[in-house]
Amino acid sequence: MARQTDIRPVIKLRSTAGTGYTYVTRKNRRTSPDRLVLRKYDPVLRRHVDFREER
Fold first, then answer.
1. Quick one: average pLDDT of 1-30?
2. Which residue from 1, 13, 27, 28 could staple onto 51, CB 3.0 to 4.6 Å apart?
3. DSSP-assigned letter for residue 2
4. Helical (H) or strand (E) element with 28
5. Is 13 buried (19+), middle (13-18) or exposed (0-12) by CB count in 10 A?
6. To 10 degrees, the CA torsion angle through 28, 16, 41, 13?
7. Cβ-based neighbours of 10, under 8 Å, separated by 6 or more
8. Within 10 A of 51 (CB to CB), how many other CB atoms are there?
9. Strand partners, 40
């Protein structure tokens, strides 16, 4: 049986606005093998921007 960390690895989400702000989360590799893109709040810019998965 696969370990929990193999199926759901910890990933960093980095702001596309270039502020350097990151979020840390987990994702399921089986259901979403592509890079994750989420629209989240960037406190440096004080607005919502896209955050992309960083490897």
1. 90
2. 13
3. -
4. none
5. buried
6. 30
7. 24, 25, 26
8. 23
9. 49
pTM for the full model? 0.85
3-state secondary structure of 18: coil
The answer to whether residues 29 and 11 touch, using CB atoms and an 8 Å cutoff, is no
Instruction: Answer whether residue 16 shows pLDDT above 70.
Output: yes
In the block, residue with structure tokens 């193999």: 6
Whether 6 shows a pLDDT value over 90: the answer reads: no
**How far is Cα 15 from Cα 9, in angstroms, rounded to an integer?**
19
Q: If you average pLDDT over residues 12-24, what whole number do you get?
A: 97
At 14 the pLDDT is 98
